[in-house]
TrEMBL record:
Domain UBC core as annotated: residue spans: 37-182
Active-site feature positions: C120
InterPro entries assigned: UBC, UBQ-conjugating_AS, UBQ-conjugating_enzyme/RWD
Biological role stated in the UniProt entry: Accepts the ubiquitin-like protein NEDD8/RUB1 from the ECR1-AXR1 E1 complex and catalyzes its covalent attachment to other proteins.
Protein name per the record: UBC core domain-containing protein
Domain of life: Eukaryota
Keyword Membrane: no
Keyword match Glycoprotein: no
Pathway(s) per entry: Protein modification; protein neddylation
Keywords from the named record: ATP-binding, Nucleotide-binding, Transferase, Ubl conjugation pathway
An example Gene Ontology molecular-function term: ATP binding
Length: 191
């Protein structure tokens, strides 16, 4: 209950600030863009983030563009230990009724991330619900690195190697992360 009260107070502060800006604008100040419901919800989600210490969020376009941001994940164990993987998030004005669009900027040898950066995570597709939030998505991405899923692959070759020969999979991941070829594909260093 206390968290919800704090969130409501935060939303009231946002509304109050919007009112002040609108009043200032009507007195000859600069015009103020009204925030969409998606922007308000995203502001709330970001203010309540509780990320693992190995995840960071940044706003390359500045704090005025909350709808586009990046999340860096640096797994602390598993196959991808010590790698740094950057994801871009594009959030729609109708968020949370539509899942954010998430792409991996880091080329990675992974069964659930293809070479174009598309991510196979069920909560970004058919299992998305408006009660989910940015924190849930980031934890889902983090989980892909601690436990890659060979049962729902985007990179079928990597998934097959993970299923059939986990030692070779580990070798391929290390080779890709340190900057090298896996088969015919070159992976830039991400360690």
């Amino acid at each position: 209950f206390l968290k919800r009260s704090e969130a409501m107070i935060g939303l009231f502060k946002v509304k109050e600030k919007q009112r002040e800006q609108a009043q200032n604008a009507s007195r000859g100040g600069a015009s103020v863009k009204k925030q969409s419901a998606g922007e308000l919800r995203l502001h709330k989600d970001i203010s309540e983030l509780n990320l693992p210490s190995s995840c960071t969020i940044s706003f390359p376009n500045g704090k005025d563009d909350l709808m586009n941001f990046e999340v860096s994940i640096k797994p602390d164990d598993g196959y991808y230990h010590n790698g740094t993987f950057v994801f871009t998030f594009q959030v729609s004005p109708v968020y949370p009724h539509e899942a954010p669009k998430v792409k991996c900027k880091t080329k990675v040898y992974h069964p659930n991330i293809d070479l174009e950066g598309n991510v196979c995570l069920n909560i970004l597709r058919e299992d998305w619900k408006p009660v989910l939030n940015i924190n849930t998505v980031i934890y889902g991405l983090f989980h892909l690195f601690t436990e890659p899923n060979s049962e729902d692959p985007l990179n079928h070759e990597a998934a097959q190697v993970l299923r059939d020969n986990p030692k070779l999979f580990e070798t391929n991941v290390r080779r890709a992360m340190t900057g090298g070829y896996v088969g015919q594909t070159f992976f830039p260093r991400c360690i």
